[in-house]
Write a structure and sequence with these properties.
Blueprint: H1 6-12, E1 18-30, E2 35-40, E3 48-52, H2 59-63, E4 70-79, E5 87-98, H3 114-119, H4 128-150, E6 154-155, E7 161-162, E8 174-175, E9 202-204, H5 209-219, E10 221-229, E11 242-251, H6 255-276, H7 278-293, H8 305-314, E12 318-321, H9 322-331, H10 341-345, H11 353-364, E13 368-371, E14 393-398, E15 402-409, H12 414-423, H13 432-439, E16 445-451, H14 452-460
Helix pairs in contact: 4-6, 4-7, 4-14, 6-8
Bound molecules: 4-amino-1,4-dioxobutan-2-aminium adenosine-5'-monophosphate (4AD) and magnesium ion.
Length: 480
């Protein structure tokens, strides 16, 4: 008998057929006449009910059907007597594929805290919450490829090991084969990277953008989707040391085209999840409702998860410039809170997350596309605006998340780009390959980066970014 997944049973309702089910026990309830086993195989959030008659299944087998054990069950699908499901499986044979000692198995059929589950990340995907999150994550990743493929964009695999620090923020992880306790030295006493594997210093990529720009200058419209690495020591609910980023890059796009694409893309991803992950999202919504109950009434969210997602899909994002945002923040500050104060004095300061939150969650109550930031707080490659002070940058801010996308129109004019790189002491000789795009056949182009985990957070409603990636890399955390 071939294995049938629970998802297939629920879709096809094969009443009267003999099937084989394989999966892990979530719970077992027994009396002397019958045992009910709730089995889950990960294909859907729903557990499937297996009915075991002690006259057919030996007691020693039933004893081993404890929470976490893996079973292979063959039997007949019959109409369900109970309320929940339309069918259930009458077991003819049960084979215990893998036992799970109830004394030692860490997952009990009760609610565990997310903090506890983070400590056992190797097992947490067996819970409803995490299996739902990872099914949604899968759907979103698939939707990313579908969106761009349907639009004629090409998927480029940019390198993970590189010598460039695209964002110039100096937050790279070094890659070396040298013995760091006694590295080879030059006669001057410097570490001799000529003797290293790549015969130079190298690091893990912080962004595929620069290589993406090279590809866009040949294939017009491309995207990357890969892991990126940042050694920022930020122990927050929004930062990972290893996160996945989607970076489209388009020749012949200006800043407005870029924002249009970004908004359309985000709405597409959310719509895709709403359409394809209904059951999981409903479960995650009910999980959040439970969580909300423990909060003080005035801090509870007015909208459920699904309504929140539909709201973003159905409404236009707000588009304002940095300068307009500063004005709003200046005139806001209803309680004259000190933390907003410094902005009043200084145009040019970077927005802190509380400012972003204010704009998105209090003032507009909508996603906001913030454009035209002061050049001093943005990367060297962004296109300078006419005013000489701002660049054609774009950040997209989401409620509950903050910055979800960062992007810009790129500086395609060689002279201006060189000038900016000099001002920022970026080693121009080392970037010869990047500058060649501006030397040969340069053209206006633009792109952006979507932090994939932040998107998964928004769609699933998970509060901590560590809970939307299977094995989070954060400061002090790289065990498995
Ligand atoms: O704003 P960032 O740094 O932009 C870039 O890297 C550009 N090269 C993108 C481009 O224009 N092609 O990062 C882009 C997004 C952020 O908006 C955020 O969503 C996410 O990446 N991000 C992180 N996500 C998780 N953990 C971190 N440490 C992140 N840093 C950035
Ligand atoms: Mg950014």
């Amino acid at each position: 008998n071939k294995r049938v997944k629970i998802k297939t049973i629920l879709e096809q309702n094969p009443i009267g057929q003999e099937i084989t089910l394989m999966g892990w026990v979530r719970t077992k309830r027994s009396n002397k006449n019958v045992s009910f086993i709730a089995l889950n195989d990960g294909s859907v959030i729903t557990n499937y009910q297996v009915v075991a008659d002690p006259n057919l299944i030996a007691e020693e087998i039933l004893k081993k059907c404890t929470t976490g054990a893996c079973l292979k069950i063959t039997g007949n699908v019959v109409e369900s007597q109970g309320a929940g499901q339309s069918s259930e499986l009458n077991a003819k044979t049960i084979e215990v594929l893998g036992e799970a000692d109830p004394e030692k198995y860490p997952l009990q059929p009760k609610k565990h805290s997310l903090e506890f589950l983070r400590e056992i990340a190797h097992l947490r995907m067996r819970t409803n919450t995490f299996s739902a999150v990872f099914r949604v994550r899968h759907a979103l990743a698939f939707a990313v490829h579908k969106y761009f493929n349907d639009k004629g964009f090409f998927y480029i695999h940019t390198p993970i090991i590189t010598a460039s620090d695209a964002e110039g923020a100096g937050e790279t992880f070094k890659v070396t084969t040298l013995d760091i306790s006694k590295p080879p030295r030059t006669p001057e006493g410097e570490v001799d990277f000529k003797q290293d594997f790549f015969e130079r210093e190298a690091n893990l990529t912080v962004s595929g953008q620069l290589e993406g720009e090279l590809a866009a200058m040949a294939l017009s419209e491309i995207y990357t989707f890969g892991p990126t690495f940042r050694a920022e020591n930020s122990n927050t609910t929004r930062h990972l040391a290893e996160f996945w980023m989607i970076e489209p890059e388009m020749a012949f796009y200006d800043a407005e085209d870029n924002a249009d694409l970004a908004e359309d893309f985000l709405k597409y991803l959310i719509s895709y999840a709403l359409e394809h992950c209904q059951e999981d999202l409903k479960f995650l919504q009910s999980r959040l409702e439970e969580e909300e109950k423990s909060k003080p009434a005035d801090q509870r969210s007015e909208m459920g998860l699904l309504d929140k997602l539909r709201f973003v899909v159905d409404n236009e994002f707000v588009r304002i410039t940095y300068t307009e945002a500063i004005d709003i923040l200046r005139n806001s500050n209803p309680n004259k809170k000190k933390k907003f104060q410094y902005l009043i004095e200084s145009w040019g300061a970077d927005l802190q997350s509380e400012h972003e939150r204010y704009l998105v969650e209090k003032h507009f109550k909508k996603p906001v596309i913030l454009t035209d930031y002061p050049k001093e707080i943005k990367s060297f490659y962004m296109r300078q605006n006419e005013d000489g002070k701002t660049v054609a940058a774009m950040d997209i801010l989401f409620p509950g998340i903050g910055e979800i996308i960062g992007g810009s129109q790129r500086e395609e004019r060689l002279d201006l780009l060189l000038k900016r790189m000099e001002e920022l002491h970026i080693p121009i000789e080392e970037m010869w390959w990047f500058l060649d795009t501006r030397r040969f056949g340069s053209t206006p182009h633009a792109g952006f980066g979507l932090g994939f985990e932040r998107m998964v957070q928004f769609v699933t409603g998970m509060g901590n970014i560590r809970d939307v990636i299977a094995f989070p890399r954060t400061p002090g955390n790289a065990e498995f």
